[in-house]
Amino acid sequence: MGEPKRQIRLGVSAIGMGYHIAAWRHPDASPGGNMELAHFIRSAQAAERGLFDMFFLADGVGIRMYDEPPGALARSSKNVQFEPLTLLSALAMVTTHIGLIATASTTWNEPYHVARKFASLDHISGGRAGWNVVTSVTAQEAQNFGHEAPPDYDHRYDRAAEFVEVVRGLWDTWEDDAFLRDKASGINFNPSKLHILNHRGRHFTVRGPLNVARTPQGAPVIVQAGASEPGRELAAATADVVYAAAQTLEDAQAYYASVKSRMAKYGRHPDALKIMPGLMAIPGRTRQEAHDRYEILQELIHPVVGLAAIAGSLGDLSAFPLDGPVPEPTNPRMLSRARILLDMARRDNLSIRQLYLAIAGGNGHRTIIGTPADIADAMEEWFTQGAADSFNILPPWLPGGLEEVVDQVVPELQRRGLYRTAYEGRTLRAILGAAPAPNRHAGAARRAAE
Ligand SMILES: Cc1cc2nc3c(=O)[nH]c(=O)nc-3n(C[C@H](O)[C@H](O)[C@H](O)COP(=O)(O)O)c2cc1C
């Protein structure tokens, strides 16, 4: 038997009501679904039926939307959400295989808390936990933790790198066979297999040990999302999966090559990291049907909500005519994103209204509206041309937008031999084709004995 064929993998980013800014108003959506457990159960079970690698919850520790123009927040559903680890603990009870990924900030948490919570989720889910490592960039979040603004860039990433190091150290507290739990002798664990971390660094002093036993995966899976130089470096050094955003094949290829080429210096094989660009996929039996489905949501965008979607980068444009040209921003909030939006507007000669309609769905991610074959073609192109190992599906609305991908696109990928027909294992690491994480101390003991 030769090497198993490399196959496309899928995750789903299942935050709130879905990605489209009018998602909660979709005729078939439960408008309060972002605070209903049943809504997430239906989505998680759909993704598992579709044999997805992971159910992914983005997060922020605060409402991250400005009320700009005024009235936009009152018309948005991006206001309340479950704390993701709590939600995933509940979803672990109604799923059996799919990986459960929560976002947790390295800026507004302490490593001991994060290590403990994800280790607990790994036990509760039977080895399916993953941590999406992010740094928090918004002032709204900073203001919930006694600061006016987030720390500057280098500080955030320096802290993030040390944060991950401490968390992984804590996850190695107990060797796999530390617990004897021998009723007869009365020995609960072997003290030589307990390791106290004693970490002292620039940002953290953490003694340990962790008060959660070694987890089923050895260590929860690490996902990372961050596109800058330090973000790529952190991914290459530590991540099992990277969530990325790219619109064109060339950009995705450049990002893919850039992250994978950094791995060798950390002693890692490029296959040890899966690169997962976001993809908004809207399937229909015909292209017309797919476009009609998308139009249902587009028509539900109130102009104030549309303007808010671009205000995050271009500022409040409500003083300009909606059907006039996009003005040069005087004080862009997010420079790189403002440039992308302006380039888009200039290239396609878009009015303000057309610009917000163009980004209302994918928010900077690639969007494919078409037949299942069109969507499978688009995935296959990036997958075979060095741009992606997997895709994080961004459903325009939940759960229906996800169910359509599961029921239409997954069978098309399977027909092409590009997608699994059953899960390969019970833990997320097994599903990703990775071995359980080794414990650094067990390795050291073995090496010393050799
Ligand atoms: C695709 C993608 C998804 C992200 N998701 C989140 C998120 O859910 N929560 C969050 O606080 N930050 C999120 N981030 C922010 C990053 O973690 C990062 O800290 C931020 O983008 C600034 O760093 P960068 O310039 O390296 O991207 C995301 C970034 C990207 C590129």
TrEMBL record:
Keyword Flavoprotein in record: yes
Entry's Gene Ontology molecular function annotations: monooxygenase activity; oxidoreductase activity, acting on paired donors, with incorporation or reduction of molecular oxygen
Superkingdom: Bacteria
NCBIfam families documented for this protein: FMN_nitrolo
Family: Belongs to the NtaA/SnaA/DszA monooxygenase family.
Protein name: LLM class flavin-dependent oxidoreductase
Residue intervals of the Luciferase-like domain: 23-387
Binding site for FMN: D59, T103, Y157, S228
Entry keyword annotation includes Protease: no
Keywords: Flavoprotein, FMN, Monooxygenase, Oxidoreductase
Gene3D superfamilies linked: Luciferase-like domain (3.20.20.30)
